[in-house]
Amino acid sequence: MADLFRKKLMTIDTLQNIRGVDLPIGLAFVQLLITGPPGAGKTFYINKIHGWPNEGYIDLTRKGWWKDKTLIYRPREIHLGLPFEGFSHALTVFDPEWCNAEPPLCLQLERIQLPPEGQRIMQGNWRQRYIFEFLLPKPDVIFKQRQERKAEGYFPVDEVMTLDMVKRQVAVYQELVLYLHRVRMQVYLRESLDQSPLCIVEEGEPGIPAWATAVSGPRPSLTTLDGWKWLILRRDPSNWLVLTDQWQKVTKESRISFDGNPFDLKIGTHILRCYPELPLGVRKKYLRRNWLITDPNTLDQHFYGFTRICPGETVMIGRSNQEYQDAFAFDQSVAARHITLSNRKGDLIITPLGEKRSVEIIQVVDDEREQRVAERRYQALKTVSSLYGGNIKLLEPEPALTLLQEVNSILEQDAYRPLNSKGEAGGLIELPNSLAPIIVGDLHAQVDNLLKVITENKFLQGLETGTACLIILGDAVHSEVDGEMEDMDSSILMMDLILRLKQHFPQNFFYLKGNHDTFSESVSKHSISQGILMRRRLLELRGQEYVAAMERLYDLLPSVICSDSFIACHAGPSRRKVTRHKIINLHTHAKISNDLINSRLKRPHYLAGYTKSDVKKFLKNMGLAKHTPFIVGHTPIDPSGSVWRNVADIKGHHIIYSAHPEGPSLFIQMNDKMIPLSYPAEPLIQLIEKINKKIDNKQNNEQNNPHPSS
């Protein structure tokens, strides 16, 4: 099985010793909750440190689990109830339903309830109350320990046990601790009591978390303002920086307020521009105080790249952060680990990571930026509205059928698609290198997300000028939001918009086939047969002829798209022998076709998935270089993100998911690199309606009140 922790663990060296066990110095003894798979040694651990003797159980799928009376007594051993696909109730990894399941059950991380972060006044921060230690010895060590205690007869969970089962139990806990780290829960792990604790540090993160190493310093005196701030807010005073029109050196942790104004940040000789993000149509109380970071020298280029720091996030910036290195191409004047930036409720905390690393800031005066950004976005929305034919709503049956039939005709002679043995457009699209790709993952009926994509950056301009192409990797239909999975109108509207885009941009808009692009009864989510529901709703709205034309569309969709600089499909490579000729002739290779839209990465619960060697063979057989970016959708790694780079330690293998209600993510190509971009959600369907209504009112007023002729 793949090691989910490979290159992600860092030893915590700043320790305190409590009753013979080394613990991170930053935690309080009573914060500690010990968990892990059966046989990991939790009970011995609790007894050694004189913790609460009784085992506890927490159902992580239950809202408010963090207030459970079980957690009053700490430290203690905790068993976890976890959500698995096919079960409405939580299971432990020693329940018979979990142990006997074939194939192994898939962990549904999105069903885990997360405690509040305490961002409102008088609200406690439950995420800081507990620190979870995961005791995770190697599977063979656990197996040996469980075999030895099996003879004692006190542990029924050991009666039916195999090494493979133990491996799967450890893998579940690895997947869980990685997810909890990504959603900013306080977690760490260790393999045994005689080894130092370990924390997870992923690419771009600053290192060992502050809670693990923080040592309380002297409290400021109550004779000072800082002392009263500490007493009331329980926070150390910050070094506030006031921006000026002169470069200022930053030599210690400093805080810049969120006042809507941009500033330039110089690290080494490289200048980054930091902008407060300005979403459209979002009510003030729902605004997130995000900061965008970009290179001011790229703003006039074809596309511009940026990164985002949301409230609560901390990022390390330097050459060793591959995402920032790809986006900004730092030179040697930037250290491998230069600074950290933290977004604390909109304020930016800048922390230099070394005395010799130059950090400077300067105010950027741009009073018209907000108006300029809003005007550009409004113009893009008006263009999309005009392209669609008015408000973004379901088309009437007759024009909808005409549009679908026209797009089918386009697909029959689709651009850049070599002909198959039947003389028809084949399953492969080979793009010229002159087209800059914009790659969007699964949209799952989030129409506003697609509207956001085509009206952001300079993407619409790129489509209109023929210098860029928009690629959707399938599965644009069938919502995955609870309460919306049976609603097919949003999926139909999504397809109406996609068809209109293909009609207007036939040579630079491409939609690949996904596993949801069918009416098959096998397409379901949480026992909801979305394929059947989609067909039924289309019959109600538009009739049999439209349904037949949509089935024809599904048959005509390509499955793979590539250029010299990337390759993409919906799901992943086939594990069968693949050649360019076979991809073009997918109509005679049904199993390969099925793999391209259904395969998943090999995981603890999906042992039949593809591996690093499968990706390498796929690239080689398609005539591409070893580390050519290979981008897929279909399999979000966890619910906390939208972009996963170099997945499973496969260099250049990226997964993109664009259906989060919080906003879409995508890949663009810049400087021969695939750069991920993420955008916040905006209510653009409503905004387009407001714009059109305003235009109509203005035209009516002009007609009713014409100006007198001069």
Task: Describe the protein.
With about 700 residues, the chain is an alpha/beta fold. A hairpin with a 2-residue loop joins β12 and β13 (about 270-275). It has three domains: about 10-215, Rossmann fold; about 240-365, no CATH class; about 390-690, Purple Acid Phosphatase, chain A, domain 2 (4-Layer Sandwich). Helices cover about 30% and strands about 20% of the residues. The model has no long low-confidence stretch (mean pLDDT about 90). The strands form seven sheets. A six-stranded antiparallel β-sheet has the order 10-19-12-13-14-15, with helices on one face. Strands 20-24-25-26-28-27 form a six-stranded mixed β-sheet. The longest helix has 21 residues, at about 685-705. The radius of gyration is 28 Å and the shape is globular. α4 (about 140-150) packs across α5 and α10 (about 395-410) packs across α13.
Please tell me how large the radius of gyration is.
Answer: 28 Å
Structural class: alpha/beta
What's the story with the biggest beta sheet?
A: 6 strands, antiparallel
Kindly report the spatial arrangement of strands forming the biggest sheet.
10-19-12-13-14-15
Q: Which CATH C-level class of the largest domain is it?
A: Alpha Beta
**Which regions are unreliable across 5 or more consecutive residues at pLDDT < 50?**
none
Q: How many separate structural domains?
A: 3
| Residue share in β-strands | 15-25%
Distance between the termini: 82 Å
DSSP strand tally = 30
User: Helicity level, as a percent range?
Assistant: 25-40%
